[in-house]
Design brief:
- The chain contains 5 helices and no strands.
- It has 110 residues and is mostly helical.
- The two termini are 20 Å apart.
- The longest helix is centred in the middle third of the chain and has 20 residues.
- The mean pLDDT is 94.
């Protein structure tokens, strides 16, 4: 991942300053739970966070999800996702499920 790749992701959010803050706060939340991501995982998470911020700004909901599809995701990963989702207003409640996958994958790879 290059700095240019990350900059493109941040710019797509609609608010580069807020996106950088969101990324930093998410890193802090992950560090407190000893979640470490490789470069590819971080790029994927950053892209998701940028898209979440865009949806938050423009009040664009995601399609509702069947939460049973996420039954194998640990409660810890869902709680991390809830904490991150709580940093932004106007997100659909199911956003936490999509976000939790990033944390769960990082836990499995550690």
């Amino acid at each position: 991942m290059t700095a240019l790749d990350m900059e493109k992701i941040i710019e797509r959010s609609g608010d580069a300053k807020k996106c950088r803050e969101l990324l930093a706060e998410t890193k802090d939340i992950m560090a407190k739970s000893a979640i470490v991501m490789d470069e590819t995982q971080w790029l994927s998470l950053a892209s998701h966070l940028s898209a979440m911020l865009y949806r938050s700004i423009h009040q664009e909901p995601i399609q509702p999800l069947d939460s049973t599809m996420f039954s194998e995701v640990s409660q810890g990963s869902i709680e991390l996702a809830v904490a991150v989702c709580g940093l932004l207003p106007n997100l659909h409640a199911d956003e936490k499920y999509l976000l939790s996958i990033h944390f769960e994958a990082a836990k499995i790879n550690n």
